[in-house]
Amino acid sequence: METARSRGAAEVGQVDQSLILAHLGRLTRLGLSARSRARALSAVRGLFGFLAAEGIIDQDPAGLVTAPRFGVEFSSALEAEEVDRLLAAPDPSTPLGLRNKAMLEVLYGAGLRVSELVGLSVGAVDLNTGLVRAFGKRGKERLVPLGEVARDWTGRYLTEARPRLLKGRLSEVLFVARAGRAMTRQGFWKIIKGLAREAGIRSQVSPHVLRHSFATHLLLGGADLRSVQMMLGHADIATTQLYTHHTRAGLKKIHSRHHPRP
User: Fold this and answer.
1) DSSP structure string for the chain
2) Whole-prediction pTM value?
3) In the chain, what are the domains?
4) How does pLDDT run across 180-197, given as a tens digit for each residue?
5) N or C: which end of the chain has fewer CB within 10 A?
């Protein structure tokens, strides 16, 4: 692999899992589809499986690398200005508006999946430390930082809106619906669609688009891929690497908009 040689792996026994992931990342940047990258990984697995079986290498570095999934679609991220308009759309003077405002701020501030957002308990958000405990796919737990703005709106929701929405009921759910129950994913989907229309955003908006915007804006701001992977809860960094396609497009826009010789 060209990536291995460029990183100083002169012998086949020096190739490790990180080099194979880097190779897959390079194929992603070159624009290869998930199917093509999966075929490339299959060839790498075949090579290292044979070398391990023959005793030429001690361990197979490709055995635990997950193949890219077919048909994974990533919607375009919103521009930062569009995110600002969306987050400003709810009316925080009403209990429901304040709840919706806090939900959007947490969704974008922590990059949660919609199922993680609506499933948050009151104790999952620590406003003092600024950490959110999210339970992702297969119940895997992770801690995600939450910025000051999202923390402030969540605190306001907890003190001003949530008691009025519960009307004396008890609930462990952080973001409650009118009847005091947890909001459904479909319910929040409809809310975010309506707010996007109010904000005059013409592009497709969904909870996943806001999560995608979180990742893209972090990468555009200089965040490293591993950190973004941890915050998103991706088991395979190859999935996170797919977001770099949109960061490259974003950088091109910035260059053409601001460079004196676009």
Assistant:
1) -HHHHHTT--SGGG--HHHHHHHHHHHHHTT--HHHHHHHHHHHHHHHHHHHHTTSSSS-TTTTPPPPPTT---PPPPPHHHHHHHHT-S-TTSHHHHHHHHHHHHHHHHT--HHHHHT-BGGGEETTTTEEEEE-GGG-EEEEE--HHHHHHHHHIIIIIHHHHHTT----BSSB-TTSSBPPHHHHHHHHHHHHHHTT--S---HHHHHHHHHHHHHHTT--HHHHHHHHT-SSHHHHHTTHHHHHHHHHHHHHHH-S--
2) 0.67
3) 1-72 (1.10.150), 80-215 (1.10.443.10)
4) 888 888 999 999 999 999
5) C
